[in-house]
Amino acid sequence: MPSCILTDNTALFPSALSNCNGHLRTFPLTFVDGKFQLPTLTDLKRLYAELGRHFETLLVLTVSEQILPLARVARQAAQGQGGATQISVLDSQQIGPGLGLLAMLGAKAILNGASLPTVEELIRSAMPHIYTLVCPEFNPNGDPHEPGNYPIYSVEEGVLNVYKRVRTRRHLLEAFQEFIEEFETPQHIAYFHGQAPNPRARPLRSEVGSRFPETPFTELEINPALSNLFGPQLVGLTLMELPHENWSCH
Fold first, then answer.
1. Would the N or C end of the chain have less CB density within 10 A of its end CB?
2. Among candidates 168, 133, 163, which has minimal Cα distance to 149?
3. What is the CATH number of domain 129-240?
């Protein structure tokens, strides 16, 4: 296997074929004493060397650098890495399913025989077409101290910007539905959330089914990395609308 996509465990993969026949690997980010602990240069160099025994080229695709400065460390480790493996590092400017979809897109291109520069350019061209909304720590029962003040953030070029504010779970789902209505031909829609209680996906699934009957809709529970980053009651929506449809690992 000549090439591999390496991403971090803040990614969520809306597909059972997320490893794309071994061309997609993940590495963990740890959470210690209330803070994320980024891998050290030694950790990453060791990982690069291990993967270098199996792959000729490696594309490291990280969570948005504006949220966690992982790409900087990954680049430093790649610059000092010896051996024959060619390593490139790319800030995805995304989180969760957005990061996962970009990683899967790159792995599919590798399966089709694309070179590392081609894969990197493909992912770069897809990044502006991945759209994510997140509502951290949404409490469907309301906060008695700050009623009606739950911000929804959009991920724009890796930065969290306030999209709008909502008061209840119904208003949250309505905001997500309005967001979905802005698109014409999405290839995938992913709804992600923490453990119950949380707004149920049925209204969104129904909206997507009537408006985009051919578009896959995935419901995902967040992983510990996203839970530590945004809170265990995170609720979010990711939508991908590329100019083409050659994106999945199928």
1. C
2. 168
3. 3.30.1180.10
Q: Could you tell me if 199 and 236 are in contact, meaning their C-beta atoms sit under 8 angstroms apart?
A: no
- CA-to-CA distance for 192 and 188, rounded, in angstroms? 13
Q: Which amino acid is at 97?
A: P
The pLDDT tens digits of the residues spanning 67-81 come to 999 999 999 999 866
Of 202, 197, 193, nearest to 97 by C-alpha is: 193
For residue 59, the cross-strand partners are 5, 88
Cβ–Cβ < 8 Å for 29, 8: yes
The span from the CA of 107 to the CA of 111, in Å, is 6
Residue 59, pLDDT > 80, answer yes
Contact 45, 81 (CB under 8 A): yes
Whose CA is closest to 235, among 132, 99, 134?
134
Residue 245 and residue 135 in contact, taking contact as beta carbons nearer than 8 Å: no
Among 143, 140, 127, CA closest to 235: 140
Both structure tokens of 202: 């049925």
pLDDT digits (tens, 9 = 90+) for 130-155: 999 999 976 555 454 455 678 999 99
Cα-to-chain-centroid distance, residue 102: 7
Q: Does domain 3-127 have CATH number 3.40.50.10170?
A: yes
Instruction: Work out the number of other CB atoms within 10 angstroms of the CB of residue 243.
Output: 8
The gap from C-alpha 147 to its chain's centroid, in whole angstroms, comes to: 30
| Residue 90 and residue 59 in contact, taking contact as beta carbons nearer than 8 Å | yes
